[in-house]
Design a protein that fits this description.
With 235 residues, the chain is mainly alpha-helical. It has 4 helices and 4 strands; from the N terminus they run H-H-H-E-E-H-E-E. A 4-stranded mixed beta sheet has the order 2-1-4-3. A hairpin with a 2-residue loop joins strand 1 and strand 2. The protein is rod-shaped. The chain starts with a helix and ends in a 5-residue tail after the last strand. Bound molecules: zinc ion (ZN).
């Protein structure tokens, strides 16, 4: 086994492992942010639901007050019937009583409907509160998991960064500038193993000459995508 080929394979492995660490360090906070947003949205739904219930309850109370007022009107007017000074006045009182009683029939129906709505919205609120509790638990779990994971992954990344510096020593000094630019552009896919006789990154076939050079551990750049090629076989 040629040491340079093994070196490139090793270099690629370290790049991939380091990239996996960075991805983990990015995905934790991203997931937490999503869960925070979800929790805030649920809380906003609950706040809106509470306002809705308060408004419906107020409307119900208003109907109830109207009902009681009408009942009082009926009672008061009934009391006045005996004191009516004329048939006309008696009929007026009768009319007032009939109207108040008729009004109260519809007011009572509306009142009961509103109470039913309040009950239904309270059930919906309970559901929302259960969902909020669930969202909060998920957020807490995610935060706890990440705060446990973060220092471990950071330590792993620090170790891998050192390994990377070591592994980079297999590259010829004169190619380091180009290598750095490739890493800047392509990250861990700066290196690509051969896939049979093709570059595994862009799938363009290599010339037989290039294949020989890759296998003999010369530094070969893919002519199509520019990746540093190495032999995939551990030889
Ligand atoms: Zn390529």
């Amino acid at each position: 086994m040629s040491s340079a080929t093994g070196g490139l394979r090793e270099l690629h492995q370290v790049h991939l492992a380091l990239d996996a660490c960075y991805r983990q360090l990015e995905s934790g906070p991203r997931q937490i942010a999503v869960l925070e947003k979800r929790q805030a949205a649920k809380q906003a739904e609950i706040d809106a639901q509470k306002i809705k219930i308060t408004e419906q309850q107020k409307a119900a109370d208003k109907k109830n007050l109207q009902f009681r007022t009408n009942e009082q009107t009926v009672a008061d007017t009934k009391a006045k019937l005996n004191q009516a000074k004329s048939n006309v006045e008696f009929d007026i009182f009768k009319g007032q009583i009939a109207k108040a009683e008729a009004d109260n029939e519809s007011i009572e129906t509306e009142y009961l409907e509103l109470l039913e709505q309040v009950d239904a919205e309270k059930v919906a609120l309970e559901q929302l509160e259960a969902e909020l509790k669930d969202a909060a638990a998920k957020l807490q779990k995610s935060r706890a998991e990440f705060s446990e994971l973060e220092p471990k992954v950071k330590a792993q990344a620090a170790g891998l960064t050192e390994e990377l510096h070591e592994a980079e020593k297999c590259l010829p000094a004169k190619e380091m500038g180009l290598y750095r630019r490739l890493v800047e552009a392509h990250g861990p896919s700066t290196l690509a193993p051969l896939d049979a006789s093709a570059c595994s990154e862009c799938f363009v076939e290599l010339s037989p000459q290039d294949i020989v050079e890759v296998r003999t551990a010369k530094l070969v750049f893919c002519k199509s995508c520019g990746r540093i090629l190495y032999s995939a076989d551990p030889e």
